[in-house]
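Hi all, a correction to my earlier message: I attached the wrong file for Aminotransferase, class V. Here's the right sequence:
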Amino acid sequence: MEKKNNPDTIQNSIIYANNAATTWPKPPSVLVAVSQAAAGPYLEQGRTTLQDVPDYLFETRRKLANFFNTSDPDAYVFTANATDSLNLLIHGFAAQEKEAFHVITTSFEHNSVIRPLYELQKTGRISVTVIPPNAEGVIDPDDVSGAIRDDTKLGIISHAGNVIGTVQNIKEISRIMDEADTFSIIDGAQSAGQIPVDLSRTVCDAFVFTGHKYLFGVPGTGGFFLKRPDKISPVRQGGTGTDSSSPVQPESMPERFEAGTPNFPGIAGLAAGITFVHDIGIDTIQKKSMGMISDLIQQLQEIKGVSLLHENPQTPLVSFQIPGLDPDDIGYILAKAYRIISRSGLHCAPWIHSRLTEGKGAVRISLSYMNTFEECTQIADAINALCQSV
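and the right structure:
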């Protein structure tokens, strides 16, 4: 008898449309890589003569450098996820500053930015300016320039929003910050693997990525690219396998920010995920994903009672409301009655929801390369049926 929780059975019986939270299903190559790494011995590189043991850390850093078009693999630091990365960078930057300073950020930010900033703000360490989007749903670089003050030291920008799917001009925004001697952090959690990111053409100081979203890795993986390590203090210390006689965290990269045993299976899966995206090609992924979301949006626009938050996303997601129905109830009905997995609520992005939904939330449908056009039609049909019942 086939078990109810068999992964193959689940995959064939649901429509998964919560990819902006984490992509699913994972490519078979990723699952194989994770399994093989977990089954193998955890041998520290450089401390064994076994030449056939993969160096997961080095190989994955090399793949990241190639993927984002940078020259130094050691500029990539592994963390548990984007939230972990942003905490390390934000608190690490603040630890370097002796006086209170000004931060600029945007209405699109996730709680992984909002909450670290709040912790610093409530102790008087920082003041914060939040830049809203323009009528097209993007951050105007001129507004960034206008928000910079003499005491502005840090800027944090979400590359792609997780609520309406617009993409910011990080090349121009980073240039503005660089000219103002403002340290720039780009949150690429929603963009890495979804849209082309060429860090050789962007002067940002740090770029954050997560492994479990559009790089198709598993949860527990992520990291950041760091151009100026001297600007970030290590906020956690521990074993690195190097200079073990010293009580001081090593200054060299990436050991400066990596303490403790790495997530070898997860990192191996991340490498496989990067290879998966690279082999298909970002352009191919983007063409299919955006084709599907455009098709879905067109169908939703024809349904009476559906209110879209934004109709022209640049990533494959759309958020909507149905007047008279609570977003959480919509999400529940889609899951229970139609086996469609969406995401309802504030999406950990309360600032943009306060502007777009008065804090009431919405239902988000987010697709990936793994979805199909047929599923888009099934989603639209389910939402139409829901609207007819109101």
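Sorry for the mix-up. Residues 282-301 form the longest helix (20 residues).
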